[in-house]
Structure formats: structure tokens, C-alpha cells
Amino acid sequence: MRIDPSTNCIAGAKFIESPNFDERPPDTEITLLVIHNISLPPGEFGGGYVKDLFQNKLDPDIHPYFKEIKGMEVSSHLLIERSGKLVQFVPFNKRAWHAGESCFEGRKRCNDFSIGIELEGTDEIDYTDEQYRVLQAVTLCLQMTYPELNRKGHIVGHCDIAPGRKTDPGPAFDWDRPC
Questions:
Q1: Is a pLDDT exceeding 80 seen at residue 178?
Q2: 86-106: burial string, b at 16+ Cβ within 10 Å, e else
């Protein structure tokens, strides 16, 4: 696995552009990797609704929960589906809108200096072996490109940078497995 320097995307990953990104602040180094989970509707997998959400195309009439999140403009750099399929929505040199109100080591606005990876899942349902395998390969690739991600404690859960507001990737995520 490698990052294509001409696109700032993982070579071979399916790319679906999200409109929910912008420029990182000038001279901002990527120093944080944030692990999330997502399922739409909550607890359901494989419907393609995460992709719709990240493209602002989620139809609020399909499910009652979708009415609750109508108008949300969010994205992530990557999504790892249950099957292990890797989808990229935002190039790494751009700021994806994944962390929201957040703080890491006293620095606010974690979107500025982080990469967000969504795992298709929930806090309570075990992630798949395929997801862990792809997450490990992606993480190693990112660490080669962004050396600050090798520093101890620079791979975190959303819960770690937004405590009290977020719980993902949740207790089902096995931090002892290589990532």
C-alpha cells in the first residue's frame, strides 16, 4: 500500500469525493490519526448510506434516523467497510470534517492536523478481521508518509479527543491488535 503523491490518496483505494472538506491551515503538519466508527442506520451495515452521508446525498425519507441527521456536513479521509474494502473521500493534504469540537494535547480543532478513518461498525459489535488487516496496512502507510504518527499516543479514538461527546470506536475496538 502506498500514497500516490500526485493525488494524496491511497493508490488503489476507491475514491468518492466528498464536498465536506477544506484546506488545512498553512504549514500544518499531520500529527494525529483518529479512529472512528459509523453505521447507517445505526447498527446496520452495507447499505451504502455512509457514502451518501459523506457526499450530502443521504435521503431523509429512507429511514427516520436520517431525518435527525439531515443537513449534517461531515466526512472522513477513509472508510473501511466490514468487508475490508477501502474508500477514500478526502485527500490527506486536505482537512476532512470528521472530529468536530475536539482537543489533543491542548491543541483544539483536531481536523486541522489529523487524518480520520471511519470503520463501518458500532461501539458494541466486534470489527472484522478484514477491517483490522486493512487498518494495519493503512496505518503503516500513513506512518511512512507522516512520521509524527509514529509517536506514542498519536493514534487515538474519537472518544479520546472529544470525551463526553463521542464514544467511538468503542469497547468493541481491540486496541491490542496492531493498527
A1: no
A2: bbbbbbbeebbbbbeebebee
